[in-house]
Amino acid sequence: MAIVAVLAAAGIAVAGILWRHQQEGEVAKWTTEQAIPVVATITPNQGVTGQQIVLPGDVEAWYEAPIYARVSGYLKDWYFDFGAHVTKGQLLAEIDAPDLDAQLAAAKARLKSAEAQVNVREAERNFAQTTYARWRDSPKGVVSEQETEAKKAEFGSSDARYKASLAEANVNQSQVDQLTALEAFKRIVAPFDGIVTQRNTDIGALINAGSSASNGPQLFRVADVHEMRVFVQVPQEISSNMRAGLTAEMMLPQYPDKTFKAVVSTTSEAINKTARTLLVELHADNTDNLLQPGTFAQIRFNLADSPGTLKIPTSALIFRENGPQLAILGKGDKVELRAIKLGRNLGTEFEVLAGLSASDQVINSPPDSLSQGEQVRVSKDAAPQPAHEAEVR
């Protein structure tokens, strides 16, 4: 019985030792398995469509001209106030210029005197020419050669006086023409069809000719608004997307429930060194006259589609000292940390311009401790995170 008891105790001890060893092996195996990170993988999405970007812009008139006086005087009358629709050549105001009128009258009087003098000198020249011709054609010996030369000299002098008087008359005529042209500027007319946006004068106001600040403000301002020009400063990094024909929508603060169509017409083809932006001009139809010069607008550009561009969710990005990286699932389920070049920020996604192929398995939401060559285990239950396109603002 003692031997049986000893053997039973020994069996129990051996069984306990074997069970404990098995448990330790299972714990070690479980610990090793738990030390391998479990990750979920995704494949890059391909193609960027429907992308938009919103930038501030300024709406300006198709043509806009300040109107200044060309003659000095007093405003006699004005016929259109701001907001009035006018046509090309329509009379906006008249200037009373008595000084100019007096100068024109004096110039006309001088011209008449000069023309009378021309007639006198012409008669003298004709008489001298006739006299010289008779003496020149007289039979030889009837008049002396000296007398013939004297008549010739007299004709030359009268001819010179006639030409001088004719030149004086031409000078007076040019003065009359100049003052007559200035007289036409007493009538201030619209330079083109449009709207009077400013009237800065009134009846009886002193008018000084010229467009400098010392000569006073502009009298009127007229804008052609049948079509509008919209100017936008586009950042350099997206300037390559700007081309003629690109469509856009305009949103104005005064019309929160409306959008207006615009089309890119041209660009400055040069980057502003100070702002690092490209000046872009768009054209917008204004048939309903809702667009006004000087308006601030938000311009939403419809960017061209990029069918071959790869994109990944922002959750897959790793930012370390070497720049943006992606964790790629390599052979044997080992991690490859790969540097990439990012493109546009699409909101929840980024464009990848270099360093990634469409067939790569990208680890989504990688642990911060993930390192190059580390063994990972792909979760069979984890579904790839969907990628969403977002508007860039």
Short account of what is shown:
Helices cover 29% and strands 37% of the residues. The chain is α+β, with helices and mostly antiparallel strands and 393 residues long. Among the domains are: 38-50 and 307-378, Beta Barrel (conserved putative lor/sdh protein from methanococcus maripaludis s2 fold), CATH 2.40.420; 54-61 and 225-303, Elongation Factor Tu (Ef-tu), domain 3 (Beta Barrel), CATH 2.40.30; 100-184, Helix Hairpins (Orthogonal Bundle), CATH 1.10.287.
Uncertain segments are 382-393
Number of strands: 22
Number of helices: 3
Helix content bin: 25-40%
Question: Which features characterize this protein?
Answer:
single chain; 393 residues; conserved putative lor/sdh protein from methanococcus maripaludis s2 fold; Elongation Factor Tu (Ef-tu), domain 3; Helix Hairpins; four-stranded antiparallel β-sheet
3D architecture notes:
The protein has 393 residues and is α+β, with helices and mostly antiparallel strands. Among the domains are: 38-50 and 307-378, conserved putative lor/sdh protein from methanococcus maripaludis s2 fold; 54-61 and 225-303, Elongation Factor Tu (Ef-tu), domain 3 (Beta Barrel); 100-184, Orthogonal Bundle (Helix Hairpins). 29% of the residues lie in helices and 37% in strands. It has helices spanning 2-35, 98-136, 145-184; strands spanning 38-42, 45-48, 52-67, 73-78, 85-86, 91-96, 187-189, 194-199, 206-207, 220-235, 247-252, 255-271, 277-285, 295-302, 306-313, 317-320, 323-329, 335-339, 341-345, 349-354, 362-364, 377-378. It has a 6-stranded antiparallel barrel. Strand 11 and strand 12 (255-271) form a beta hairpin. Helix 2 (98-136) packs antiparallel against helix 3 (145-184). The model is unreliable at 382-393 (pLDDT under 50).
